Amino acid sequence: MHKMWPSDSNDHRVTRRNVIIFSSLLLGSLAILLALLLIRTKDQYYELRDFALGTSVRIVVSSQKINPRTIAEAILEDMKRITYKFSFTDERSVVKKINDHPNEWVEVDEETYSLIKAACAFAELTDGAFDPTVGRLLELWGFTGNYENLRVPSREEIEEALKHTGYKNVLFDDKNMRVMVKNGVKIDLGGIAKGYALDRARQIALSFDENATGFVEAGGDVRIIGPKFGKYPWVIGVKDPRGDDVIDYIYLKSGAVATSGDYERYFVVDGVRYHHILDPSTGYPARGVWSVTIIAEDATTADALSTAGFVMAGKDWRKVVLDFPNMGAHLLIVLEGGAIERSETFKLFERE
Ligand code: ADP
Ligand code: MG
Hints:
By secondary structure, the protein is α+β, with helices and mostly antiparallel strands. It has helices spanning 4-43, 68-85, 94-99, 110-125, 135-141, 155-163, 193-208, 299-323; strands at residues 46-52, 55-62, 106-107, 170-173, 178-181, 213-218, 221-226, 234-239, 246-252, 256-261, 266-269, 272-275, 289-296, 330-335, 340-342. Magnesium ion is lined by residues 191, 258, 260, 303, 306-307.
């Protein structure tokens, strides 16, 4: 008995040492497992960069269910389809078909019908600041096709084109899904098609895998597919309209952001900058702001309202800051000169 104690206590020591060795092994392998898991999760984002919608696009997507590359490629293909389908000039474009048959009912598919209808609804909502019938004016300034004929038109030419502008000249036949343009107006969907394409991109991702996450970007406009790694916000920089810096960061787990600015597509004559966002009430490029950034639930809204906000903010930015949140649009305005104004609701997205 007496002799047994030491050996007993020896056994005890061995056991404890075993426990320690075992737990450190366990902890070690757990750590390695965790690290592997994290690396795997990080690796899962597939990124595709290309050109579509008249700009550079980036698709960043992850899925546990299907190869994310399949999703990204399907999205890119759809973006290319939308690019020509709603182009102002492409021979395959349904917009061109409508414009080329004035005063005639043109039968269209559901997608076209609802997008043109949405465009006119945004025109109604913004008192015509957003107007999808600026086609003739854009043509006059050269802001169509490949931007080969950029020029400052004469006042008379602008007066004439203004007579053939106005969304009320787009007629809808709900029953037969037909559209007609009257009074020589031409439809241009450049202010909304990109947003629509981004919303479609998200739908496509979710049709492959309802739990897919990531985002799609086209020329700085972003649509969230789902939060980063399923739980974190994506951080989106707002570009300085007069430099390469980022002037603000926003954090989004869902929804969309779009910016309209005078710095992407413009030309300068005699020191005056002429850009592609036209004020439908004057026929000239909208003045008074450098950029308007909108956060909204969907990209179609963000896109259309950023164009509208750009036109309106130059006249009365205070009213825009107060009115737009009621339409679900949280906004940041960079006024001419660089002063920044934002809606109270925008601030909610400026932190994690
Ligand atoms: P971007 O395409 O650079 O993101 P916007 O979203 O503001 O910029 O869209 C600008 C485009 O919208 C123009 O190129 C033109 O096709 C069209 N557009 C210009 N002025 C208007 C307007 N007042 N209402 C609706 N669309 C417009
Ligand atoms: Mg827009």
